[in-house]
Structure formats: C-alpha cells, structure tokens
Design brief:
Elements: H1 2-16, H2 24-37, H3 41-46, H4 51-74, E1 80-85, H5 91-98, E2 103-108, H6 120-131, E3 135-141, H7 149-163, E4 167-171, H8 186-195, E5 202-205, E6 221-228, H9 229-234, E7 250-255, H10 260-272, E8 277-280, H11 295-305
Parallel strand pairs: 1-2, 1-8, 2-3, 3-4, 4-5, 5-6, 6-7, 7-8
Helix pairs in contact: 1-2, 1-4, 7-8, 10-11
Length: 306
C-alpha cells in the first residue's frame, strides 16, 4: 500500500509541475490520463501545444518522472532495527525480544569476540531471540584485514559451536579493495567461510564509515555510518555508487542522540539516505552500546520504523 501511495504522489507532482503551462483543469486531466493510461501524452495533446514544444515538454517530464522514481525506490518503505547488543544476558536482551519484528538483527559480543569459555546464559538469550525471528550475529574483530585468517575463523567456529548464531559481524573492516576482490581476498574468504556454516549465515562488515563498492559482494550488510548524532547531521556523505543498491545492504548506527526529537530527526535522515537498517541511541562514548534506550524514547523509535 505504501508503494501505491508513493506512485500517486509521483503522478501528482509531475502533473503539478505542468501548471506553469496550463490550468487547474488540465492538471486534473493530466492525473486522470496518467492514472488510467500510465501516459503523459494524452494530457499534453489536450494542451494543443505546438508539436516541437510538446515533444520537448514530454522529454522533460519523462526525465523528471524517472528521477523521482529512482529517488522513491532508494527510500526504504520499511526499515528495521539492528542493534549492537554489547551487554550481558539480562533485561536488555528481553527488551530486544519484545521489539520483534521491528528489531530483526542483534550483534552479540561476550568478550570482544566469543571469548575462550562457553557461557550457557548467552546460548539461552540467543535461542530466545531467534525464536522471535531475530538474527543474532557474533562480533569478530578483523583489525582492518591484518588479523590472521585462522584466528578469525576460530572465532567464527566458537560462535557456531557454542551459540548457534545466525551469522557474523566483522568489526574494524578494511576499506582497501585489495582485501575485497573475490575469490581469494581476505573478506571474500571470510564471507564464504560463514556461508559454509549453513542456515541464514548473515554477514555484516563494519568499516564504521563509507567504504568502496568492491565490498558489496563480501557481506550481506555494510555498516556505512557509525558515529554521533552531530556527525550524522553535519558531516554525513555517501559515494554515488551507494544509490545503485537496495537499502537492505546498508546499516546506520547513530549514538549521542540525546532526546526523542534528535532520534526522530536521525531516523528520518536515515530513510532519506537509504539505510535499510538503523539504530539510534542516547548512549554515548566511550561505551555507546552497553545499554538500550528505554521508555518513550524506545517506543517512539520502534514506532518510527514500523
């Protein structure tokens, strides 16, 4: 229903822009023709303009509609929440469960990785979240592509053996294409290793900033913004290639959004910027992911994403 509503808006905007040539009556006729026939030509013929001018106007409007459609397709009709859940089992994990299905992904992080000892309480919260349809992925550090692959794979093995995770979150990811290009690159190999585990095997790369297009095939999701609310407002930018891909490839994390109004503004911007996954929190450095928002702030954020 949202896409149909968006289409009506595009038609109205296109026909609205014809008013500099015509009257309100022709605006209504334009909408009727466009909606019934999917064409602007009948509306232009009604204007009885010279052929050369009509052709020029038609070309201009085709370009306009194409641009509007591209922009509309980039804005996610539905966003979902993805949370860095860097806190131990307890009430915040219960809060995650209660936020499904709006919240669809959580990153577990027992000890800056899986740790060296199995913890049954983590296995319990992972299973509870998965029963609610939430993908729980395990945090693994890659040290910008310099960490030994065997050590990274060992962390992946522990997560799958101990906690039966839904995938892996690769932190401190490099942005150098030499580590991305398949089939033998560092991140391509790690992505394939996770996929070989079976199941949903979701993969997330976190360079913490905008990266290069060469990485789009090395993970299901790229975390292309991680920073403060002020940074998101004042200094966010994205390379042109991002617009070619579905919002489902991109995740934005914004911390230090101290009020519900600031959070609402950040979520609205994330929609405009084509992020399919988003998380906004009032928590701040040095540990912005050791809690979840609560109360009206949390309810409002979930409501913005539903």
């Amino acid at each position: 229903m949202q896409r149909r509503h968006a289409s009506r808006l595009l038609i109205d905007r296109t026909c609205e822009s014809m008013r500099w040539l015509t009257s309100d009556l022709h605006f209504d006729l334009c909408r009727a023709d466009f909606r019934s026939e999917g064409m602007l030509t009948p509306a232009l013929m009604r204007l009885r303009l010279p052929l050369s001018l009509s052709t020029g106007v038609l070309v201009a409007f085709v370009a306009l509609v194409t641009t509007l459609l591209i922009l509309s397709s980039r804005a996610p009709s539905n966003q979902t929440m993805a949370v860095p859940a860097f806190f131990p089992p307890g009430r915040f994990w219960s809060q995650i469960d209660s936020a499904a299905p709006t919240l669809q992904l959580a990153v577990m992080n027992p000890a800056s990785g899986p740790g060296t000892v199995y913890d049954q309480t983590y296995e319990s919260v992972v299973r509870a979240a998965q029963k609610r349809g939430i993908a729980v992925v395990g945090y693994v550090d890659t040290d910008y592509g310099t960490r030994d692959l065997s050590a990274v794979e060992s962390d992946i093995d522990r997560y799958y053996t101990w906690y039966h995770v839904s995938g892996i979150f690769f932190d401190r990811a490099s942005t150098e294409c030499g580590l991305a290009i398949a089939p033998v690159s560092y991140y391509a190999r790690l992505n394939a290793y996770v996929k070989s585990k079976g199941g949903s095997a979701r993969t997330v790369l976190n360079p913490g900033r905008q990266t290069r297009e060469c990485f789009i095939g090395d993970a299901d999701i790229l975390l292309t913004f991680e920073g403060s609310d002020t940074q998101y407002i004042d200094s966010y930018s994205a390379p042109s290639w991002v617009a070619k891909y579905s919002p489902s490839h991109f995740w934005h994390v914004i911390y230090s959004a101290s009020s519900a109004a600031a959070m609402t503004r950040a979520v609205d911007l994330s929609k405009q910027r084509g992020a399919g996954f988003v998380y906004v929190t009032p928590d701040a450095l040095p540990s912005p992911y050791d809690t979840l928002p609560t109360g009206a702030y949390w309810r409002t954020e979930l409501g913005k994403l539903r």
